[in-house]
Design a protein that fits this description.
Rossmann fold; binds adenosine-5'-diphosphate; 22% strand; binds magnesium ion; Alpha-Beta Plaits; alpha/beta; single chain; 12 helices; four-stranded mixed beta sheet; 3 domains; 383 residues
Protein backbone atom coordinates (compact mmCIF):
# COMPACT_ATOMS: atom_id res chain seq x y z
CA UNK A 1 0.00 0.00 0.00
CA UNK A 2 2.88 2.30 0.89
CA UNK A 3 4.62 1.73 -2.45
CA UNK A 4 1.39 2.24 -4.34
CA UNK A 5 0.74 5.55 -2.52
CA UNK A 6 4.31 6.67 -3.24
CA UNK A 7 3.93 5.78 -6.89
CA UNK A 8 0.64 7.71 -7.19
CA UNK A 9 2.11 10.70 -5.35
CA UNK A 10 5.20 10.84 -7.54
CA UNK A 11 3.13 10.60 -10.71
CA UNK A 12 1.20 13.74 -9.71
CA UNK A 13 4.05 15.61 -8.07
CA UNK A 14 6.17 15.37 -11.19
CA UNK A 15 3.31 15.73 -13.66
CA UNK A 16 4.12 18.52 -16.10
CA UNK A 17 0.56 19.83 -15.84
CA UNK A 18 1.04 20.46 -12.14
CA UNK A 19 1.89 24.14 -11.88
CA UNK A 20 4.51 23.64 -9.17
CA UNK A 21 7.71 25.64 -9.18
CA UNK A 22 11.17 24.40 -8.25
CA UNK A 23 12.25 21.25 -6.45
CA UNK A 24 9.85 18.91 -4.82
CA UNK A 25 10.12 15.60 -3.02
CA UNK A 26 8.17 13.08 -1.04
CA UNK A 27 9.53 13.15 2.52
CA UNK A 28 7.48 10.39 4.05
CA UNK A 29 4.65 7.96 3.36
CA UNK A 30 3.15 6.51 6.51
CA UNK A 31 0.39 3.92 6.71
CA UNK A 32 -1.63 3.49 9.89
CA UNK A 33 -4.68 1.25 9.65
CA UNK A 34 -6.52 2.68 6.65
CA UNK A 35 -4.98 6.15 6.87
CA UNK A 36 -2.13 7.04 4.54
CA UNK A 37 -0.21 10.18 5.45
CA UNK A 38 2.03 11.61 2.76
CA UNK A 39 4.43 14.40 3.61
CA UNK A 40 5.75 16.40 0.69
CA UNK A 41 8.25 19.24 0.53
CA UNK A 42 7.95 21.89 -2.16
CA UNK A 43 9.75 25.17 -2.63
CA UNK A 44 8.47 28.21 -0.79
CA UNK A 45 8.00 30.00 -4.08
CA UNK A 46 4.80 27.99 -4.54
CA UNK A 47 1.85 29.88 -3.12
CA UNK A 48 -0.63 28.32 -0.75
CA UNK A 49 -3.25 27.95 -3.48
CA UNK A 50 -0.90 25.91 -5.65
CA UNK A 51 0.10 23.74 -2.71
CA UNK A 52 -3.50 23.06 -1.78
CA UNK A 53 -4.33 22.19 -5.38
CA UNK A 54 -1.45 19.72 -5.41
CA UNK A 55 -2.55 18.23 -2.07
CA UNK A 56 -6.10 17.90 -3.35
CA UNK A 57 -5.01 16.14 -6.52
CA UNK A 58 -2.82 13.65 -4.64
CA UNK A 59 -5.43 12.95 -1.99
CA UNK A 60 -8.13 12.38 -4.60
CA UNK A 61 -5.90 10.07 -6.63
CA UNK A 62 -4.83 7.94 -3.65
CA UNK A 63 -8.37 7.61 -2.38
CA UNK A 64 -9.64 6.76 -5.86
CA UNK A 65 -6.97 4.20 -6.64
CA UNK A 66 -6.59 2.49 -3.26
CA UNK A 67 -10.08 1.50 -2.16
CA UNK A 68 -11.09 2.08 1.45
CA UNK A 69 -8.22 4.34 2.47
CA UNK A 70 -8.27 7.86 3.76
CA UNK A 71 -5.37 10.01 2.59
CA UNK A 72 -3.88 12.97 4.39
CA UNK A 73 -1.46 15.11 2.48
CA UNK A 74 0.84 17.50 4.27
CA UNK A 75 2.91 19.88 2.21
CA UNK A 76 5.90 21.65 3.66
CA UNK A 77 7.22 24.83 2.13
CA UNK A 78 11.00 24.76 2.08
CA UNK A 79 13.52 27.35 1.07
CA UNK A 80 16.18 25.74 -1.09
CA UNK A 81 18.36 23.63 1.21
CA UNK A 82 16.55 24.81 4.34
CA UNK A 83 14.38 22.70 6.51
CA UNK A 84 10.65 23.35 6.31
CA UNK A 85 9.75 26.96 7.00
CA UNK A 86 6.02 26.93 7.19
CA UNK A 87 4.42 23.62 7.78
CA UNK A 88 0.98 23.54 6.32
CA UNK A 89 -1.21 20.70 7.39
CA UNK A 90 -3.99 20.76 4.88
CA UNK A 91 -5.84 17.71 6.00
CA UNK A 92 -5.09 17.71 9.68
CA UNK A 93 -3.10 19.60 12.23
CA UNK A 94 -3.84 22.44 14.56
CA UNK A 95 -5.29 25.79 13.61
CA UNK A 96 -2.05 27.48 14.57
CA UNK A 97 -0.30 25.77 11.67
CA UNK A 98 -2.82 27.04 9.15
CA UNK A 99 -2.69 30.28 7.18
CA UNK A 100 -4.89 33.03 8.62
CA UNK A 101 -8.55 32.95 7.67
CA UNK A 102 -10.03 35.85 5.76
CA UNK A 103 -13.43 37.46 6.28
CA UNK A 104 -15.64 37.71 3.19
CA UNK A 105 -15.62 41.45 2.46
CA UNK A 106 -18.81 43.27 3.35
CA UNK A 107 -20.59 40.24 4.86
CA UNK A 108 -21.60 40.39 8.52
CA UNK A 109 -22.12 36.69 9.25
CA UNK A 110 -21.25 33.48 7.41
CA UNK A 111 -23.11 30.23 8.06
CA UNK A 112 -22.21 26.81 6.68
CA UNK A 113 -24.91 24.22 6.08
CA UNK A 114 -23.13 20.89 6.21
CA UNK A 115 -23.56 17.15 6.37
CA UNK A 116 -21.35 14.17 5.84
CA UNK A 117 -23.97 12.60 3.58
CA UNK A 118 -25.67 13.73 0.40
CA UNK A 119 -29.42 13.75 0.03
CA UNK A 120 -30.22 14.61 3.65
CA UNK A 121 -31.58 18.07 2.82
CA UNK A 122 -28.66 20.51 3.11
CA UNK A 123 -29.72 22.52 0.07
CA UNK A 124 -33.35 22.53 1.19
CA UNK A 125 -32.36 23.75 4.65
CA UNK A 126 -29.85 26.28 3.31
CA UNK A 127 -32.36 27.84 0.91
CA UNK A 128 -35.32 27.96 3.27
CA UNK A 129 -33.23 29.15 6.21
CA UNK A 130 -31.87 31.91 3.97
CA UNK A 131 -35.46 32.91 3.18
CA UNK A 132 -36.39 32.78 6.88
CA UNK A 133 -33.43 35.09 7.64
CA UNK A 134 -34.64 37.40 4.91
CA UNK A 135 -38.14 37.41 6.40
CA UNK A 136 -36.54 38.68 9.60
CA UNK A 137 -35.42 41.74 7.68
CA UNK A 138 -31.89 40.66 6.79
CA UNK A 139 -30.16 41.01 3.45
CA UNK A 140 -29.08 37.48 2.65
CA UNK A 141 -26.68 35.83 0.25
CA UNK A 142 -26.91 32.15 -0.66
CA UNK A 143 -23.80 30.48 -2.03
CA UNK A 144 -23.96 26.97 -3.44
CA UNK A 145 -20.55 25.38 -2.99
CA UNK A 146 -21.60 21.88 -3.95
CA UNK A 147 -19.46 21.85 -7.07
CA UNK A 148 -20.27 18.25 -7.94
CA UNK A 149 -24.02 18.54 -7.44
CA UNK A 150 -25.13 22.17 -7.42
CA UNK A 151 -28.85 21.98 -6.72
CA UNK A 152 -29.58 25.59 -5.82
CA UNK A 153 -30.36 26.63 -9.46
CA UNK A 154 -33.10 23.97 -9.61
CA UNK A 155 -34.40 24.79 -6.14
CA UNK A 156 -34.73 28.51 -6.91
CA UNK A 157 -35.98 27.84 -10.45
CA UNK A 158 -33.37 29.95 -12.21
CA UNK A 159 -30.11 29.37 -13.99
CA UNK A 160 -29.40 32.72 -15.58
CA UNK A 161 -25.70 33.58 -15.65
CA UNK A 162 -24.58 36.25 -13.18
CA UNK A 163 -23.29 39.55 -14.49
CA UNK A 164 -19.76 40.80 -14.03
CA UNK A 165 -19.12 44.39 -12.97
CA UNK A 166 -15.50 45.44 -13.08
CA UNK A 167 -13.58 42.43 -11.78
CA UNK A 168 -16.38 41.11 -9.63
CA UNK A 169 -19.23 38.70 -10.26
CA UNK A 170 -22.54 40.09 -9.02
CA UNK A 171 -24.86 37.37 -7.68
CA UNK A 172 -28.34 37.66 -9.22
CA UNK A 173 -31.19 38.50 -6.89
CA UNK A 174 -33.63 35.61 -6.89
CA UNK A 175 -36.65 35.52 -4.56
CA UNK A 176 -35.02 38.41 -2.71
CA UNK A 177 -31.79 36.49 -2.03
CA UNK A 178 -28.41 37.16 -3.61
CA UNK A 179 -27.73 33.75 -5.05
CA UNK A 180 -24.67 32.22 -6.64
CA UNK A 181 -23.98 28.71 -7.82
CA UNK A 182 -21.50 27.17 -10.21
CA UNK A 183 -24.67 25.87 -11.88
CA UNK A 184 -25.32 29.42 -13.15
CA UNK A 185 -22.00 29.47 -14.95
CA UNK A 186 -21.90 26.16 -16.78
CA UNK A 187 -24.02 24.39 -19.35
CA UNK A 188 -26.97 22.61 -17.80
CA UNK A 189 -26.00 19.06 -18.73
CA UNK A 190 -22.26 19.51 -18.60
CA UNK A 191 -20.74 16.75 -16.43
CA UNK A 192 -19.17 18.18 -13.29
CA UNK A 193 -15.87 16.38 -13.20
CA UNK A 194 -13.42 18.75 -11.60
CA UNK A 195 -9.79 17.81 -11.49
CA UNK A 196 -8.28 18.34 -8.05
CA UNK A 197 -6.59 21.68 -8.76
CA UNK A 198 -9.74 23.11 -10.30
CA UNK A 199 -11.75 22.64 -7.11
CA UNK A 200 -9.70 25.14 -5.14
CA UNK A 201 -9.77 27.55 -8.08
CA UNK A 202 -13.55 27.47 -8.45
CA UNK A 203 -14.09 27.85 -4.69
CA UNK A 204 -11.74 30.80 -4.59
CA UNK A 205 -13.59 32.39 -7.45
CA UNK A 206 -17.00 31.92 -5.84
CA UNK A 207 -15.76 33.32 -2.54
CA UNK A 208 -13.34 36.07 -3.43
CA UNK A 209 -14.20 37.19 -6.94
CA UNK A 210 -17.82 37.91 -6.11
CA UNK A 211 -19.36 41.06 -4.74
CA UNK A 212 -20.89 39.67 -1.55
CA UNK A 213 -20.85 43.06 0.10
CA UNK A 214 -24.03 44.36 1.69
CA UNK A 215 -25.24 40.97 2.92
CA UNK A 216 -26.02 40.60 6.61
CA UNK A 217 -25.85 36.83 6.26
CA UNK A 218 -24.17 34.55 3.76
CA UNK A 219 -25.57 31.03 3.90
CA UNK A 220 -23.23 28.52 2.27
CA UNK A 221 -24.72 25.28 0.99
CA UNK A 222 -21.82 22.89 1.40
CA UNK A 223 -21.13 19.70 -0.54
CA UNK A 224 -21.58 16.39 1.24
CA UNK A 225 -18.66 14.79 2.96
CA UNK A 226 -15.55 16.02 4.55
CA UNK A 227 -13.41 16.29 1.46
CA UNK A 228 -11.41 18.92 -0.27
CA UNK A 229 -14.08 21.59 -0.57
CA UNK A 230 -14.73 21.42 3.15
CA UNK A 231 -11.13 21.70 4.08
CA UNK A 232 -10.46 24.54 1.65
CA UNK A 233 -13.35 26.50 3.13
CA UNK A 234 -12.80 25.67 6.77
CA UNK A 235 -9.22 26.78 6.56
CA UNK A 236 -9.64 29.84 4.40
CA UNK A 237 -12.72 31.83 5.44
CA UNK A 238 -13.96 33.25 8.70
CA UNK A 239 -17.15 31.41 9.50
CA UNK A 240 -19.55 32.29 12.30
CA UNK A 241 -20.95 28.80 12.70
CA UNK A 242 -21.89 25.61 10.90
CA UNK A 243 -25.11 23.69 11.19
CA UNK A 244 -25.21 19.99 10.51
CA UNK A 245 -28.18 18.51 8.70
CA UNK A 246 -28.99 14.84 9.13
CA UNK A 247 -31.78 12.32 8.88
CA UNK A 248 -32.46 10.44 12.11
CA UNK A 249 -31.20 7.09 10.81
CA UNK A 250 -28.39 5.37 12.68
CA UNK A 251 -26.36 5.33 9.48
CA UNK A 252 -26.58 9.08 8.90
CA UNK A 253 -25.98 9.81 12.58
CA UNK A 254 -22.80 7.72 12.56
CA UNK A 255 -21.50 10.14 9.92
CA UNK A 256 -22.49 13.13 12.04
CA UNK A 257 -20.50 11.71 14.95
CA UNK A 258 -17.45 11.33 12.71
CA UNK A 259 -18.06 14.57 10.84
CA UNK A 260 -18.01 16.92 13.83
CA UNK A 261 -14.37 16.12 14.47
CA UNK A 262 -13.44 17.62 11.10
CA UNK A 263 -14.36 21.13 12.25
CA UNK A 264 -12.28 21.10 15.40
CA UNK A 265 -8.77 21.75 14.08
CA UNK A 266 -10.10 24.69 12.10
CA UNK A 267 -11.80 26.33 15.06
CA UNK A 268 -15.18 26.40 13.30
CA UNK A 269 -18.05 26.47 15.76
CA UNK A 270 -20.87 24.01 15.17
CA UNK A 271 -24.10 25.71 16.18
CA UNK A 272 -26.11 22.50 16.29
CA UNK A 273 -27.93 19.80 14.40
CA UNK A 274 -31.02 20.03 12.18
CA UNK A 275 -32.93 16.80 11.83
CA UNK A 276 -34.62 16.52 8.44
CA UNK A 277 -37.23 14.08 7.14
CA UNK A 278 -37.69 13.22 10.80
CA UNK A 279 -41.36 12.31 10.74
CA UNK A 280 -44.18 11.85 8.29
CA UNK A 281 -47.73 12.89 8.97
CA UNK A 282 -50.05 10.91 6.76
CA UNK A 283 -52.90 13.23 5.92
CA UNK A 284 -55.23 10.50 4.61
CA UNK A 285 -55.66 9.31 8.19
CA UNK A 286 -58.04 12.09 9.23
CA UNK A 287 -60.27 11.58 6.17
CA UNK A 288 -60.52 7.84 6.76
CA UNK A 289 -61.34 8.38 10.43
CA UNK A 290 -64.14 10.74 9.43
CA UNK A 291 -65.53 8.20 6.95
CA UNK A 292 -65.39 5.44 9.55
CA UNK A 293 -67.35 7.61 11.97
CA UNK A 294 -70.06 7.98 9.32
CA UNK A 295 -70.58 4.24 9.02
CA UNK A 296 -73.58 3.07 10.99
CA UNK A 297 -72.50 -0.32 12.26
CA UNK A 298 -75.01 -2.87 13.37
CA UNK A 299 -73.31 -6.17 14.03
CA UNK A 300 -70.62 -6.76 16.65
CA UNK A 301 -68.11 -8.24 14.19
CA UNK A 302 -68.13 -5.13 12.01
CA UNK A 303 -67.80 -2.93 15.09
CA UNK A 304 -64.72 -4.85 16.15
CA UNK A 305 -63.24 -4.55 12.67
CA UNK A 306 -63.75 -0.80 12.64
CA UNK A 307 -62.18 -0.48 16.09
CA UNK A 308 -59.21 -2.44 14.81
CA UNK A 309 -58.89 -0.22 11.72
CA UNK A 310 -58.90 2.88 13.97
CA UNK A 311 -56.19 1.34 16.12
CA UNK A 312 -54.03 0.70 13.06
CA UNK A 313 -54.65 4.23 11.82
CA UNK A 314 -53.54 5.54 15.18
CA UNK A 315 -50.07 4.12 14.57
CA UNK A 316 -49.83 6.24 11.41
CA UNK A 317 -50.40 9.50 13.29
CA UNK A 318 -46.72 10.41 13.11
CA UNK A 319 -44.42 7.96 11.40
CA UNK A 320 -40.74 8.03 12.34
CA UNK A 321 -39.41 6.82 9.04
CA UNK A 322 -35.74 6.78 9.92
CA UNK A 323 -36.03 6.17 13.65
CA UNK A 324 -35.74 8.51 16.61
CA UNK A 325 -32.07 8.59 17.40
CA UNK A 326 -31.09 12.22 16.83
CA UNK A 327 -31.72 13.64 20.30
CA UNK A 328 -29.63 10.91 21.93
CA UNK A 329 -26.78 11.63 19.53
CA UNK A 330 -27.02 15.37 20.17
CA UNK A 331 -26.83 14.70 23.92
CA UNK A 332 -23.82 12.49 23.36
CA UNK A 333 -21.91 14.99 21.22
CA UNK A 334 -23.20 17.93 23.30
CA UNK A 335 -24.78 19.86 20.46
CA UNK A 336 -28.27 21.31 20.47
CA UNK A 337 -30.95 19.83 18.23
CA UNK A 338 -32.05 23.09 16.63
CA UNK A 339 -35.08 21.92 14.67
CA UNK A 340 -36.81 18.88 13.36
CA UNK A 341 -38.32 19.09 9.88
CA UNK A 342 -40.86 16.49 8.78
CA UNK A 343 -40.83 14.70 5.46
CA UNK A 344 -43.42 16.56 3.45
CA UNK A 345 -44.76 16.07 -0.01
CA UNK A 346 -45.44 19.78 -0.60
CA UNK A 347 -41.88 20.64 0.40
CA UNK A 348 -40.57 18.03 -2.03
CA UNK A 349 -42.92 19.29 -4.79
CA UNK A 350 -41.84 22.89 -4.20
CA UNK A 351 -38.21 21.81 -4.46
CA UNK A 352 -38.90 20.01 -7.71
CA UNK A 353 -40.77 22.94 -9.21
CA UNK A 354 -38.18 25.54 -8.18
CA UNK A 355 -40.53 27.54 -5.96
CA UNK A 356 -38.99 27.65 -2.50
CA UNK A 357 -41.30 26.44 0.27
CA UNK A 358 -40.83 29.48 2.49
CA UNK A 359 -42.29 31.77 -0.19
CA UNK A 360 -45.65 30.20 0.47
CA UNK A 361 -45.47 27.82 3.43
CA UNK A 362 -48.36 25.41 3.61
CA UNK A 363 -47.74 24.00 7.05
CA UNK A 364 -47.16 26.01 10.19
CA UNK A 365 -44.82 23.45 11.76
CA UNK A 366 -42.49 23.37 8.72
CA UNK A 367 -42.47 27.15 8.46
CA UNK A 368 -41.73 27.30 12.19
CA UNK A 369 -38.79 24.88 11.78
CA UNK A 370 -37.02 27.12 9.26
CA UNK A 371 -37.84 30.21 11.33
CA UNK A 372 -36.41 28.49 14.40
CA UNK A 373 -33.14 27.77 12.60
CA UNK A 374 -32.90 31.39 11.44
CA UNK A 375 -33.69 32.72 14.90
CA UNK A 376 -31.22 30.30 16.48
CA UNK A 377 -28.47 31.66 14.25
CA UNK A 378 -29.43 35.27 14.94
CA UNK A 379 -29.42 34.61 18.67
CA UNK A 380 -25.93 33.11 18.46
CA UNK A 381 -24.75 36.55 17.54
CA UNK A 382 -26.10 38.04 20.78
CA UNK A 383 -26.09 35.11 23.14
N1 LIG B 1 -38.27 17.55 4.55
C1 LIG B 1 -38.34 17.06 3.31
N2 LIG B 1 -39.47 16.51 2.84
C2 LIG B 1 -39.54 15.98 1.59
N3 LIG B 1 -38.51 15.96 0.73
C3 LIG B 1 -37.35 16.52 1.14
C4 LIG B 1 -37.20 17.10 2.42
N4 LIG B 1 -35.94 17.58 2.53
C5 LIG B 1 -35.34 17.30 1.35
N5 LIG B 1 -36.17 16.67 0.52
C6 LIG B 1 -35.88 16.15 -0.81
O1 LIG B 1 -34.78 15.26 -0.67
C7 LIG B 1 -33.89 15.40 -1.77
C8 LIG B 1 -32.50 15.80 -1.25
O2 LIG B 1 -32.58 17.09 -0.66
P1 LIG B 1 -31.40 18.15 -0.83
O3 LIG B 1 -31.82 19.37 -0.08
O4 LIG B 1 -31.04 18.30 -2.25
O5 LIG B 1 -30.26 17.38 -0.02
P2 LIG B 1 -28.66 17.58 -0.04
O6 LIG B 1 -28.39 19.01 -0.36
O7 LIG B 1 -28.23 17.20 1.35
O8 LIG B 1 -28.11 16.63 -1.05
C9 LIG B 1 -34.50 16.44 -2.68
O9 LIG B 1 -35.25 15.77 -3.66
C10 LIG B 1 -35.42 17.22 -1.77
O10 LIG B 1 -36.52 17.78 -2.48
MG1 LIG C 1 -27.28 19.81 -1.96
Amino acid sequence: MKDQALHITNAILFDEDMALKGDREVREVRVEDNVITVTIAVEKANDVKTRYAMEDAIRDAIQAQIPGVQARIISLAIDGEDEPQAACAHSHGSASELPPKKPIPGVKRVWLVCSAKGGVGKSTVALNTALALKAQGHTVGLLDLDLYGPSIPALVGSDLPPIVVGNLIVPPEIHGLNVLSIGFMIEKDQPLMWRGPMVAGVINQLLWEVDWSGNDDLVIDMPPGTGDTYLSILQSIQVDAAIIVTTPSQLALADVRRGVAVFEPYGVKIAGVVENMATYDWEGRESILRLLDDIKVLDEKSQKSIARIKKILDTTRTIHIFGTHTQALCDEIKLPLIASIPLDIALQNDNDSGTPYMLNPKKKNIQASFETIAKFLCDLENP
